Protein: Zinc carboxypeptidase
Organism: Kribbella caucasensis
Amino acid sequence: MRRLIPVLLVVSLAVATTATATADPQTVPNGPWVQDSQQVSLERLHSYDEMVKALRQIERQSNGRVSLETVGRSNEGRDLYLAKVGTGPTRVLYITQQHGNEPLGTEAALQLLQRLGNGGAGWDAILSKITLLVIPKVNPDGSERFQRENHDPDCSGAFCTPGVGFDVNRWHDPAVAPEANPVPEAAAVQRVAIRYQPKMVVDYHHQGSYRSADGDLITTSIFWPNHPDAPASAVALSRQMCLVIFDTLMHYGFAEVSQYPGTLPRGIARNSYGIRGAGSVLVELRGDIGQKSAGMLVRTAYASMGALLESIAEGTVFTQDPARADTIPLRGDFVENPHDE
């Protein structure tokens, strides 16, 4: 199969403008989060309505390659969309923007869906082996307010910020059935996972700005399930997926990749879908989304998405030595104000 990644790195799409208002960013321990020091610009990002319009346009123009369905509604009643492309037996699920103020994975997913919808011999060969499932902007209510949580000011209990809402990425625990889940956005992802049984899941987020041991700013951090209930086979596959992403991004030289220091809650998507038996990976993009870096970070997410699909289709992901994932450098020190550099 011919190598498609160089094509991935140069494809770009026009991104609509939006006048969405921003709220004060929420900062909580263990991230990922948007830092108070960031110069946040939303001019290049899709609002929820613009995203829906873009998805429908992609579906129309794809000649049947891309299909959409609604898989739930947010707490404020916005439809949650699942985009499907491909006919292969291996199902791969990408989810983006569980935290409303972490938007660039959504932008990358829209670009990828448009590219896949256009088809072509190389992509058609990949999509004959893979069915890609994408849930973009899982937290549309939070995204409209540019806040981490969903919008549920009456929430209470675990992982709730009173007067604001729930942290969606803490409510995927397999022990909590979707119908009993108080977070409808997380319940929608759960239902998709139960229905389609994806072999692999990748969850896109942002983190703050960190430095590598060599002094370079980290652009991407990745990690696998670390909960003890995740079966060894799922952890091994997750590590193999991380290696594909690491090798791809480091090879093309526009990313500095590290291990993310993941925590243990079962309800985190990375852990939850690993516990369910899937290869499950967290991808954290650098939190700085100013105009100067947003394009590079979208390209980083986009390249990781495409490279993983290609590697799955070729089977090379399964030839990686899972133990080598331990050699991915640990994330370094937090940079208090990267804009001063």
DSSP finds nine helices and ten strands in the chain.
